[in-house]
Design a protein that fits this description.
It is a single chain. With 194 residues, this protein is mostly helical. The protein has one domain. The chain has 8 helices and no strands. Helix 1 packs antiparallel against helix 6, helix 3 (55-75) packs across helix 4 and helix 4 (77-100) crosses helix 5. The longest helix is centred in the middle third of the chain and has 24 residues, at 77-100. It is globular and about 50 Å long. The relative contact order is 0.16.
Length: 194
């Protein structure tokens, strides 16, 4: 599920979004959920475009779905938490499948990714306080990976993943420190609506 296949040499454009999610994902979770919804829709549209062998349809559908998911996350907090969890589960599954050498376009891989996405969504609903922090950090690190991995020399894939794991740990630590000084974002949102 390579969302960036349509951007060519502009894959670095996702790096600021990755930094935002990794550093401010918990604090500004509504904006973070919009970004996650947007990119989740882009990924879904891209995948559909690959399956029907029509990249233009995939791009248009991805933009429409991305905007729809992004707007929906703004109004539907539980849905957006589930969607963020699905995106985190999907990212984790894709990373694991790449490391073990599975073909990400194979049907079996898609089923594993879908299962991981649903599990991630359900876990996020149950454990949202910790998982907002973890998922925004994970997706942020993955976006930076997607935006920068093409610039490493060939053969660096044996060691470059360590840099992204370190970045993920830094993101988690930064957000955990920021979390201590802030209220629960979901409870704060519920009290605003009353």
């Amino acid at each position: 599920m390579d969302v960036l296949q349509y951007t060519g040499n502009l894959s670095w454009l996702v790096i600021p979004f990755g930094l935002f999610l990794g550093l401010l994902g918990y604090r500004l979770f509504k904006i973070s959920l919009f970004i996650i919804g947007l990119f989740f829709g882009l990924a879904l549209g891209s995948w559909i475009g690959i399956k029907v062998d029509n990249s233009q349809l995939g791009l248009i559908l991805g933009l429409v779905l991305g905007l729809a998911f992004g707007v929906a996350t703004h109004f539907l907090i539980r849905f957006s938490l589930f969607l963020a969890g699905m995106a985190g589960g999907l990212v984790l599954a894709v990373l694991v499948m790449r490391q073990i050498g599975m073909d990400p376009s194979a049907t079996e891989s898609m089923l594993w990714a879908l299962g991981a996405a649903v599990a991630g969504g359900l876990l996020t609903l149950a454990l949202y306080k910790f998982l907002i922090l973890l998922i925004t950090s994970l997706i942020g690190a993955f976006m930076i990976y997607q935006g920068t991995v093409g610039y490493f020399p060939s053969g660096s894939e044996k060691w470059s993943w360590v840099l992204y794991v370190v970045l993920l740990v830094v993101f988690i630590l930064v957000q955990a420190g920021a979390r201590k000084g802030h209220d629960d974002p979901v409870e704060k949102e519920k009290s605003r609506r009353r």
